Amino acid sequence: MTSTLFADEVVLVTDLRKNLSAYLEKVRSGHPITIVQGNRADVALVSRADLAAALREAEHARRLSDQIESFIETAEILADREMLDKIRGSEEDVVAERYLTLNELKAEFGLNND
Length: 114
Fold this sequence. Notes:
Layout: E1 9-12, H1 13-18, H2 20-28, E2 33-37, E3 40-45, H3 48-79, H4 81-95, H5 102-108
């Protein structure tokens, strides 16, 4: 048997059939199994708990990736003097009420107010 990144153990489907109960106990105790059929090792047996944990970790990694992307965008804006000046000017426009409401903008372009 060989080790893989996903599973501790790789078994042939014929061995799995012969010793299903023993392999299920291994999976339940936290040892995923990759199943080989012919020349394909594209199926794995994992416990629901391990699958749920992997999904939580993937979601956590996605959130971290989103945060990193946000930090990068913020750093790029903060490094751009021209962009910062435009943002400051926009903030001054809002304070001085130099803006159009959505309805005013729609009217200016002849769009319905629906």
